[in-house]
Design goal:
Its EC number is 1.1.1.88. Keywords: NAD, Oxidoreductase. InterPro entries: HMG_CoA_Rdtase, HMG_CoA_Rdtase_bac-typ, HMG_CoA_Rdtase_cat_sf, HMG_CoA_Rdtase_NAD(P)-bd_sf, HMG_CoA_Rdtase_sub-bd_dom_sf. Belongs to the HMG-CoA reductase family. This protein has 438 residues and is of the alpha+beta class. It folds into four domains: 8-50, no CATH class; 64-110 and 233-386, 3-hydroxy-3-methylglutaryl-coenzyme A Reductase, Chain A, domain 2, CATH 3.90.770; 114-227, Hydroxymethylglutaryl-CoA reductase, class I/II, NAD/NADP-binding domain (Alpha-Beta Plaits); 391-437, no CATH class. It has helices at 13-24, 28-37, 43-50, 88-100, 126-143, 145-153, 188-208, 253-269, 271-291, 296-307, 347-355, 361-383, 388-404, 408-417, 425-437; strands at 64-72, 75-82, 106-109, 114-121, 157-165, 173-181, 220-227, 234-242, 317-322, 325-333. It has a four-stranded antiparallel β-sheet with strand order 3-8-10-9. A four-stranded antiparallel β-sheet has the order 5-6-4-7. It has a two-stranded antiparallel ribbon with strand order 1-2. Helix 9 (271-291) runs antiparallel to helix 10 (296-307) and helix 9 packs across helix 12. The radius of gyration is 27 Å and the shape is globular. Bound molecules: 3-hydroxy-3-methylglutaryl-coenzyme A. 3-hydroxy-3-methylglutaryl-coenzyme A binds at residues 85, 87-91, 93-94, 97, 276-277, 279-280, 283, 378-380, 382-383, 388, 391-392, 394-395.
């Protein structure tokens, strides 16, 4: 019987599992068995994972894979990817193999500015607020010296603080809009600590500011938080080659290039297609962001906002044919870190970063953008030639057979049957049923 629980967080892991199994499972022994099956025998490693989040009762595995042969800015990379969906890693690998023979990927970070905001309400005279802000700005920067001094020593810190009047969007609403350079750190804690201090200093100084009327002194701080929308933390990645080099089985190079450019144009023009097109890009981006211990929710939110920056949700990639040259590129905002957070805690994240030769945040931005571009190339290449199902379902075959409970021998036999055929779920089920009924 499902019921609420008091003080759950204070229970031990065993007690939490016991409560859950009894409250939610008819076969509680099996539930306990499955949850514990995923515990790591290494108790230190398990404890580390337990402490990443709260109320941990087990581990949730995702496959950790690598896609080799990425030639980026003249260097070879093997890209680690963490994802549950079949065909993504194969597609990335196939795209990498294709482009390594055509000059590889060129990637460049355009800017790395991060953003944080103190949101506040003020109902007084606007020009007096502006004068107060100009007066207080040096004090705001001074008030966070203890937080910023190490970042400044490394070459980063606060770029600027602006007062922004948002009263057209919401009555009495203003912001302190601050920009930061957080170097190799994603910077969320650094930015939030600075913002919270700005808010305290700003409010306290307003109360003592003699030019304000008594009601103007009462500035209401609503919240202080970084923004995951970072349109000035941008990376560009691209591939290009003569159209003649786009040899494909089913289409001439010119047909392929033109159809490809049209497919991208459709994603630019039509939001339903743009969402799926960008989902395919995120297959690559999320997988590398996750493998390298970065915050994929922040990346997703920021990238999708960027895709809609002109008011319509559009493709994150662009393609063109000019003077016989096919060009395909991506430009996305990415706030990533290669120090701090999970990057120094999770053993597999450390391995992922070592595979990438311990990249700086800028280098990681380039590789993540390249993974997104490669993924989009592979998906579009399939979509405009064979269709997506052929390759995707070829990779998915073993998942279907595992769902059916096929033995290794049965899997081998059925895989052989589908070697040169498009995999269709119902046909795999029929093949399995025929095999097991014999
Ligand atoms: P294929 O031509 O059958 O592969 O492609 P192949 O067996 O000829 O092998 C060629 C290369 O592909 C290999 O080279 C590998 O690099 C890679 P090799 O290693 O032999 O030197 N490869 C593999 N890598 C690892 N494990 C494997 C494997 N097989 C091939 N088992 C493939 C098959 C799936 C790669 C191709 O059909 C493809 O790229 N399809 C696109 C799949 C895709 O985009 N999947 C994402 C999921 S679908 C989706 O969510 C997004 C979508 O909706 C987005 C959109 O609409 O835009 C489509």
């Amino acid at each position: 019987m499902k019921r609420p629980v008091e003080g759950f967080s204070k229970l031990t892991k065993e007690q939490k599992i016991d409560w859950l199994a009894k409250a939610y499972f008819y076969d509680d022994e099996n539930a306990v068995y499955v949850l514990k099956q995923y515990w790591n025998e290494d108790t230190q490693l398990q404890k580390l994972h337990d402490e990443f989040i709260e109320n941990t009762i087990s581990n949730f595995y995702l496959p950790f894979a690598v896609a080799p042969n990425f030639l980026v800015n003249g260097e070879y990379y093997t890209i680690p990817m963490t994802i549950e969906e079949s065909s993504v890693v194969a597609a990335a690998s196939k795209a990498a193999k294709f482009w390594q023979k055509r000059g590889g990927f060129i990637a460049k970070v355009i800017d790395t500015e991060k953003i944080g905001q103190v949101h506040f309400m003020y109902s007084g005279d606007k020009s007096r607020l502006q004068t107060f802000f100009t007066y207080i700005k040096p004090q705001l920067i001074h008030a966070v010296k203890d937080i910023t001094k190490n970042m400044e020593k490394r070459g980063g810190g606060i770029i600027d603080i602006e007062l922004r009047d948002k009263t057209e969007a919401l009555t009495n609403y203003y912001q302190l809009h601050a920009t930061f350079n957080t170097l190799d750190a994603m910077g969320a804690n650094f930015i939030n600590s600075c913002l919270e201090q700005f808010a305290k200093t700003f409010k306290a100084a307003a109360q003592d500011y003699s030019e304000f009327t008594s009601s103007e002194k009462d500035i209401q701080i609503v919240m202080s938080i970084l923004s995951n929308y970072v349109p000035n933390c941008i990376v560009h990645a691209e591939v290009s080659c003569p159209v003649e080099a786009l040899n494909e089985d089913r289409l001439t190079p010119h047909e392929f290039a033109e159809k490809f450019v049209r497919a991208v144009a459709i994603a630019n023009a039509e939001p339903h297609r743009a969402v799926t097109h960008n989902k395919g890009i995120m297959n690559g981006i999320d997988a590398v962001v996750l493998a390298t211990g970065n915050d994929f929710r922040a990346v997703e939110a920021g990238i999708h906002a960027y895709a809609a920056r002109d008011g319509q949700y559009r493709s994150l990639t662009q393609a063109s044919i000019e003077n016989g040259i096919f060009r395909f590129w991506i430009e996305i905002p990415l706030a990533l870190g290669t120090v701090g957070g999970l990057t120094s805690l999770h053993p597999l994240v450390k391995i992922a970063l070592e595979i990438l030769d311990k990249p700086s945040a800028k280098e990681l931005m380039q590789l993540v953008a390249v993974a997104g571009l490669a993924q989009n190339f592979a998906a579009l290449r399939s979509l405009i030639t064979s269709g997506i199902q052929k390759g995707h379902m070829k990779m998915h075959l073993f998942n279907i057979l595992n769902q059916l409970g096929a033995t290794e021998e049965q899997k081998k036999l059925i895989a052989h049957q589908f070697k040169d055929k498009t995999v269709i779920h119902s046909e795999v089920v029929a093949a399995y049923q025929q095999l097991t009924s014999n």
